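Hi,

I'm pasting everything inline rather than attaching a file, because the server keeps stripping attachments. The sequence lines come first, and each chain or strand is labelled.
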Amino acid sequence: MKVIARIRTDFKEKFGIPRQSGIVAEAVGRIVFEPEYRVPEALRGIDGYSHLWLIWGFSLAEREDWSPTVRPPRLGGNKRMGVFATRSPFRPNPVGLSSVRLLGIEDTAEGKTLIVGGVDLLDGTPIYDIKPYLAFTDSHPEATGGFSDGVRDYKLSVHIPEELKGLLGSDLATVVALLEQDPRPSYKEDGEREYGMVFRDMEIFFTVLDGTLTVTGIKRK
Amino acid sequence: MKVIARIRTDFKEKFGIPRQSGIVAEAVGRIVFEPEYRVPEALRGIDGYSHLWLIWGFSLAEREDWSPTVRPPRLGGNKRMGVFATRSPFRPNPVGLSSVRLLGIEDTAEGKTLIVGGVDLLDGTPIYDIKPYLAFTDSHPEATGGFSDGVRDYKLSVHIPEELKGLLGSDLATVVALLEQDPRPSYKEDGEREYGMVFRDMEIFFTVLDGTLTVTGIKRK
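And the predicted assembly:
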């Protein structure tokens, strides 16, 4: 598989990345094509689409061998599911699939770049393909699906003390959206424990107790 | 990319294959895993899902080089679009994306196989990945998209003489659904021309005039 582009996002570490695309609409990325694919004609007509598919590589999840089962974090991390019944990165071919919103196309020194919203990709992730999202063939609102059916509505209540809110500035809404989706590995429940999530140039510290996440500190790097 | 499975379908030739997945619900395929991936545990929980994603290889579309633009048949075949604004098989990485309906799981001499509906894949197509379809992240009924928006409702009216209908037997509904979606390369409009579509062990001949497709003959192979 040839790398056609790389995406730049504010996620510098795996911890805290939304677990699927579209969950955090505020999470924005920029797709920069590799020099060989920096051809404006290849994007002709793409501005007519509201959504795109990205097929990409789980760059941090490459393993020598594959395991037939995985433990999805949303099941508490202690129940094994077949790898083909999950979106786990640890699969025979470590390829991810994300639908993103096309927010704009910008001319830059690196050619035309695509600005996309709702990303769930680590900064620098290699992109193998970009396809238009076609609602008539790709959208199945009636699709049902095992343990993931209840996921959409799961959210933490986020509390950020006033003195810390000021430090977030225009990132406030995005950070709240990221924290609401609960970045913790689900098998842990320890109200005393402090977690740190890296976002852009910040490390955001928090604790979680009884469904409420409280931000305890913010450090600029 | 490792081939984890191959799909068996009734499409032995490229001509006549539905242009996207789900368009012809009656088109059924059987996913047979390669021996290394024939592990029942890898499918644990997959029966909870109504739809699956297949990531697969365009086995007939491999080319040495890529072209930045392609001519989609639905635009009449004479208008060039950027390859990333289309689902054309001729792309830098010849990888396809199809959502299919999971109809059943069968125990066979070749291990557990998945029966899926709405396929748009040639018989023998290599499968690289199978993922569950998650409506909360994959379904965007509101997505808009350039020239493809009008495609859903485009259908030919299909006329099959009574004496030929009998030859189709239980395949009648499937064949009608395949013909309705207009297998012709769109840039041709020649009411005299006879086309032949291969489906399973039959070759089905037809002409098209003014939006009506007439079956002119059926030959068992």
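The domain at 5-138 of chain B is CATH 2.40.30.70 (Elongation Factor Tu (Ef-tu); domain 3).

If the labels don't parse on your end, tell me and I'll reformat.
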